[in-house]
Design brief:
Blueprint lengths: L8 H8 L3 H9 L6 E3 L2 E4 L2 H15 L7
Antiparallel strand pairs: 1-2
Length: about 70
């Protein structure tokens, strides 16, 4: 089974439409968990990012179909 590639801070900031500093703050605060991937520390597995987005939508009261 192939796992989706982990996401970089830059990729997450683009998906969330926020700054890279805001993404780093989410990581520091434990909202997003990272894994070390070779020489590139701080990558976020896709399933961790997806779980964060679901929690965020739940807090906002968005329906699952809202992008």
């Amino acid at each position: 089974m192939d796992w989706p590639a982990p996401l970089s801070v830059r990729e997450i900031s683009a998906e969330l439409e926020c700054s890279e500093d805001e993404v780093r703050a989410l990581i520091r605060n434990g909202e997003l968990r990272t894994v070390a991937c070779g020489i590139r520390p701080g990558l976020v597995p896709r399933h961790e990012f997806d779980a964060y987005v679901r929690r965020l939508r739940h807090r906002r009261g968005d329906s699952p179909t809202t992008p």
